[in-house]
């Protein structure tokens, strides 16, 4: 009557290594199978976990990119308004001189 040794709970770095390399260092010594079939998670749970992680990552990426775009737009808008503020008095003065027929004296 042989009993299999109980598996230790996975550690986050082990899961990352499993995803990157397809195997665990600590399980590679005890099992020849790949990490996905080593009994850590059933295929359905693994697929659901992967989908959840991808969805959350994409949502965060979208949020961060939208925030960065809004910040950039605000900076550019402020720069354009500053340039307009600086150029507008001369633009108006030139148009008034031209319209009223008076030259700079």
Report on this structure.
By secondary structure, this protein is mainly α. The protein has three helices and no strands. The longest helix is centred in the last third of the chain and has 58 residues, at 43-100. The mean pLDDT is 81.
Helix content: 55-70%
Radius of gyration: 32 Å
So how many helices? 3
Instruction: Note the run of SSEs as H and E.
Output: HHH
Most strands sheet: none
Silhouette: rod-shaped
**Mean of residue pLDDT?**
81
Distance between the termini: 111 Å
Computed structural class: mainly alpha
What is the percentage of strand-forming residues?
Answer: under 5%
Secondary structure: elements and pairs:
Blueprint: H1 12-21, H2 25-28, H3 43-100
Keywords:
single chain, 105 residues, mainly alpha, 3 helices, 0% strand
Q: In a nutshell, what does this entry contain?
A:
With 105 residues, the protein is mostly helical. It is built from 3 helices and no strands.
């Amino acid at each position: 009557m042989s009993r299999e040794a109980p598996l230790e709970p996975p550690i986050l770095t082990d899961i990352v290594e499993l995803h990157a390399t397809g195997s665990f260092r600590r399980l590679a010594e005890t099992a020849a199978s790949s990490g996905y079939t080593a009994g850590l998670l059933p295929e359905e749970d693994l697929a659901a976990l992967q989908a959840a992680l991808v969805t959350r990552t994409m949502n965060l990426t979208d949020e961060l990119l939208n925030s960065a775009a809004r910040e950039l737009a605000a900076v550019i808008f402020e720069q354009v308004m500053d340039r307009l503020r600086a150029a507008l008095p001369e633009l108006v003065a030139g148009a008034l001189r031209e319209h009223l027929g008076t030259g700079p004296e």
